[in-house]
Amino acid sequence: METKKTQEIFLITGALGCIGTWILYHLLKQGKRAISFDISDDRHRLDLLLNPKEQDQITFVQGDLTVVGQVLETMQAHEVNRVIHLASLQVPFCKADPVRGAHVNVVGTVNIFEAARQLGLKHLTYASSIAVYGPQDDYPEELIPHDAPFGPRTLYGVYKVANEGTAKIYLQDHNISSTGLRPYIVYGPARDQGLTSDPTKAMLAAVVGEPFHINFRGKLQFHYASDVALQFIEASLSKLDGANSFNLGTNPVTITEIVEIIKHIKPGAEITYSEDLLPFPVCDGHEFQLNFSHVPITPLEEGIHQTINLFDNCISHGRIPRSS
């Protein structure tokens, strides 16, 4: 007699951020049940992708990641068996308030692992970052392998190193496996906050006809937000053994190339950029691709084109004001 397949019920922390919004979108399209856990109830990013009727199919929980009881109760009440942990404060916010940054990024991650332990979950997926590394000058290789030495230069990076260490200890002590993904620059609709959100803001500015200045330059790696969401979902479903951390990779390009693509799609766009280099190395995504080879990676020009088209559509339907 066949046993009934267990329903996949996903908890997404920080679900109303950029990547979380796209994960909710894809889970809904895949017919999977999603529990959104976020301290905010602001759905302006989700409104870009899903209409109110579609959003009604998602369970929204407004909760504080730093309170372990709230995390545990939410997971237990909704019988969660897949966890994608994204919630964190980004670089500028950690710098402005280090204590709050540590509570959210470090204690919050421990709370997720601890809730998983208490409920008997044996795998979870979480967002790490290339901020765990030092600047390019720290490394002999042009492309940094996934197991290169850490050398963070921001508190945000230090907190992400702590998250990866937490994952290793929970594997060692409690046999909870995990997969951490380290994006570089995520771009696309819903990316409106954080140090590296400027390229997406430039795309929106081009659509609404306003000038924009990108506050950094350099040879960089870009990931379309929709792809990153699918990569997190796949990592959650695959449940690899061990405490894994992967760079997402992609071919490095310059800000100049990004600006040229935007101007090709939107002639007349006024976009400039700073001479300040972004202090992160480019990373080798080979190990990630070996483990998740069938996850789609949208070509850069196509991803930018899709982003600009979606912004155009949102403006025409009043979901983004004509003047940003």
Brief descriptors of the model:
single chain; 324 residues; alpha/beta; Rossmann fold; two-stranded parallel sheet; 11 helices; 15 strands; 41% helix
Write the layout of secondary structure elements.
Blueprint: E1 9-13, H1 18-29, E2 33-38, H2 52-55, E3 59-62, H3 68-77, E4 82-85, H4 91-96, H5 98-119, E5 123-127, E6 143-144, H6 155-174, E7 177-182, E8 185-187, H7 198-208, E9 212-214, E10 219-220, E11 222-224, H8 225-238, E12 243-247, E13 253-254, H9 255-265, E14 271-273, E15 282-283, H10 286-291, H11 300-316
Parallel strand pairs: 1-2, 1-4, 2-3, 4-5, 5-7, 6-15, 7-12, 8-11, 9-14
Antiparallel strand pairs: 10-13
Helix pairs in contact: 1-8, 3-5, 5-6, 7-9, 7-11, 9-11
